[in-house]
Amino acid sequence: MTPTRTVFLVARRELNTRLRTRSFAIGTVVTILVLAGYLLLQASLAEDADRSKVGLSGQATGLAAPLTATAKQLGHTVEVSDVKDPSEGERMVRDGDLDAFVSGTADRLRVTVRSELDENLHKAMNALAQQQVLEAQLLAAEVPNTREILENAARAHVQVDTLERVDPQKDQRLAVALVLIVLLYMSLLLYGTMVAQGVVEEKASRVVEILLATVRPWQLLLGKVIGLGIVGLIQFTLIGVTGLAVALATDVLTIDGAATGALVWGLIWYVLGYFLFATVFASVGSLVSRQEDAQSVLTPITLVVAVAFVLGLSLLTRSADDGVTVVLSLVPPFSPILMPGRIALGVASGWEIALSVILTVTAIAALTWLGGRVYRNAVLRTGSRVRLRDALGV
Amino acid sequence: MPDAVLEIDHVSKRYGDVVALRDMTFDVRAGELFGFVGSNGAGKTTTMRIALGVLAADSGEVRFSGRPITFDNRRRIGYLPEERGLYPKMKVLDQLVYLAELHGLPTNSAHRAAENWIARLGLRDRRGDEVQKLSLGNQQRVQLAAALVHEPAVLILDEPFSGLDPVAVDVMSAVLREQAAAGVPVLFSSHQLDLVERLCDRVGIVRSGQMVACGTVAELRTGGDAQLVVEAPNAPPGWADSLPGVTVDAVHNGQTTLRLAPGTDDQTVLTAALATGPVREFRRHAPSLTELFRNVVSS
Ligand SMILES: Nc1ncnc2c1ncn2[C@@H]1O[C@H](COP(=O)(O)OP(=O)(O)O)[C@@H](O)[C@H]1O
Ligand SMILES: [Mg+2]
Predict the structure, then answer these.
(1) Disruptive mutation site among A205, A224, A376 for chain B (greatest number of B CBs within 10 Å)
(2) What are the tens digits of pLDDT across the range A269-322?
(3) Where, if anywhere, are coiled coils annotated (chain A) (predicted)?
(4) I want to staple A283 with a disulfide (CB 3.0 to 4.6 A). Which of A374, B64, B76, B85 is the partner?
(5) Do A213 and B98 touch (CB under 8 A)?
(6) Counting one residue from A and one from B, how many pairs have CB atoms under 8 Å apart?
(7) pLDDT band at A394 (very low <50, low <70, confident <90, very high)
(8) Are residues B191 and B236 located together in one domain of the fold?
(9) Which residues of B touch A206 (CB under 8 A)?
């Protein structure tokens, strides 16, 4: 029998047992629901933010058309309604049925709001009031072409010259990057821990003794790592693709190309990150013989993953292009979280990506060698916890 | 093709200062049931684990069919480890199929073999259950099936009878006999010496990591002093004390058990007994394996 077939059999067992578990299905569905829920909330908040309900009463009722038009110029949608009684209008504002209630005469408009007036609506109202006063006074002064003057005034605007181009997609890119590193962090931690627990389970149940009477340690380790890695990749892809589809469909994201690219890079970096950590997780798992002892040996390594994540979160939001961020994004163990984050932000250059991949692959090779050695030496030693020094054979 | 013999050849192993095995040497021939007995810590498990390659020997060699055991022919061994172990959450059938495939069986044959052993060992109703949900006795049956499912050419079983109920002991015995009859060398360790005596073609007794006696039970008996049981109702106490080369082992229910030094003629004992009056019984005593074991281990 070829080693490839052995590795395949081990990997297939992992796939079969994990994919069938309820926790896999529940975990995937819950994560997708949380993500989709978050996106839908964002979409509805974004919609609410530039839409107001305004009640008009008395003379102000005549302002419905100009108010809607002016607000529209400012990118704000206004829904107007007539209110007979001013006290009724106030009550509706208090109850949240109206965002603003407008009363008073054309030149002395009063706006009642609950706590604060939307900035755009405020600007629209001011402009309207000023226009009303101007029109009234021009008419009073019997200026001949009042209408023409007003139209000219309305057309006038300043020209803006930008010296530095601000990426209009910056906010969306940041959102993509943050969601991506959260997913990466969760997946790396979850599947790394699963590798360790799988190793401990085989040791604790002693099944490893019959396995290793016919399978070499590296074949068992590689099969397990590959099998669980595929399970993780399937889950990551399901969540990523669904999330992306929902975000694009609801227009929370409009950057189709960039977001898809970010997801693809996210998948690549999931694989790199997983292989970086998996053998380390497996080797620390092989040091103990009982599930109860697993947590204590896993803590140092889960901390490393957590630090990479927390650093990623703060550096990407504040200074994605700083020297420190660039350097950290090149080197493991930070690269699997920082680099895909920077790629999603669109601030990673080609050579940075290439260098970080090379460094990470090198680290994977080194850690796999080291982890394989620890695993081989420790996996058949049952009983008390094996000391790392003994397992390394130094 | 050379005979399917499992040879343990001068195998030594130490754990730090503890010498676990010292020049352990014996062989298990094709079609033979070999019983491996010894006190706790004598080195039985260590020997078996070395044969399986899950433990490395410091020196010496284990051969099968004349060739050193390597990764490739190790697949042909069926192994029942002392510390039983299966995947607790895996179903019985899946587990056996998986183990058969890992030992090199193609998927179809693996399925057939697994179903076959499940039926043979009375596990049909349990084939879809997780192993952890089975009774201890049934878990033992699955463990035995796991050792046999890949049609091994050698069987190495570490205390296969421990914890079995009498029915399961019979099932296990029948399976081992059947395997041996099919030409498989079967090595197993046990503390149930009466069972070993009944079942085994040959027995090896280990003490402190060394094989101290090895052969058929009859051969082991020839090594020790001959014993006689004499029933002479009128014989006074101490009647045999002055006979040359004779020591009295026990007097019980009117029967005297005597031990004869090598070269002592039993007919002089009979003459002396007849001199005291009638002799109702006079026979050679064949010591049981348990007695032989006690002698060997305590000497
Ligand atoms: N992992 C180990 N570390 C240290 N000593 C061991 C280990 N395993 C076995 N031994 C020692 O080796 C000797 C032989 O043990 P073992 O082969 O298990 O005996 P048996 O199976 O005959 O009871 C014993 O003295 C035992 O204490
Ligand atoms: Mg033992």
Answers:
(1) A205
(2) 999 999 999 989 999 999 998 888 888 889 999 999 999 999 988 888 888 778
(3) none
(4) A374
(5) no
(6) 55
(7) low
(8) no
(9) 81, 83-85
The domain in which residue B277 lies consists of: 223-298
For residue B192, give the nearest of B157, B149, B152 by alpha carbon.
B157
Q: Where are the alpha helices (DSSP H) in B53-165?
A: 71-74, 92-102, 107-120, 136-148
CATH number of the domain that B169 lies in? Answer: 3.40.50.300
H helices within chain A, ranges in order? Answer: 3-19, 22-49, 64-73, 86-95, 119-140, 146-155, 170-204, 207-212, 217-249, 256-285, 291-318, 323-330, 335-345, 350-378, 388-392
Which of the pair, B299 or B2, is modelled with greater confidence? Answer: B299
Enclosing domain of residue A225: 3-43+169-392
Q: Report yes or no: A166 at the B interface, CB cutoff 8 Å.
A: no
Q: Within this chain, do residues A315 and A361 fall inside the same structural domain, yes or no?
A: yes
CATH number for the domain that contains residue B252: 3.30.70
pTM of the shown model:
0.81
Domain ends where: B186, B205, B220? B220
Q: Give how far Cα A300 sits from Cα of A280, A310, B61, Å.
A: 11, 15, 42
Q: How large is the greatest C-alpha to C-alpha distance in chain A, in angstroms?
A: 106
Residue A258 structure tokens: 């960039």
Q: What percent of chain B has pLDDT over 70?
A: 99
CA angle A134, A140, A143 (to 5 degrees): 80
Based on the number of CB atoms within 10 Å of its own CB, is A115 exposed (0-12), middle (13-18) or buried (19 or more)? exposed
Predicted local distance difference test score (pLDDT) of residue B1: 44
Residue B5 — very low, low, confident or very high, per pLDDT cuts 50/70/90? Answer: very high
pLDDT in tens, A100-119: 888 887 777 888 888 888 78
Specify if A162 maps to a domain.
no
- The protein residue whose alpha carbon is closest to atom 27 in ligand 1 is B41
Picking from A130, A155, A180, the residue at the C-terminal end of a domain is A155
Residues B254 and B173 in one domain: no
- Which residues, in sequence order, are CB contacts of A106 under 8 Å at separation 6+? A59, A60, A62, A63, A129, A132, A133, A136
Q: Among B120, B62, B74, B117, which Cα is nearest to B95's?
A: B117
* Residue B163 shares a structural domain with residue B285: no
Q: What are the residues whose beta carbon lies below 5 Å from ligand 2 (ion)? A: B 44-45, 82
Rounded CA-CA distance B191/B212 in Å is: 16
Interface touch B89/A17, C-beta < 8 Å? yes
Backbone angles phi, psi at A381, to 5 degrees: -90, 100
**Domain count across chain A:** 2
> For residue A189, what are the contacts with CB-CB under 8 A and spacing of at least 6?
A302, A305, A306
At residue A166, the pLDDT reads 66
pLDDT at B2: 53
User: B106 vs A158, which has greater pLDDT?
Assistant: B106
Out of A305-314, A377-386, B271-280, pick the least confident: A377-386
Q: CA B247, B252, B254: angle at the middle one, nearest 5? A: 100
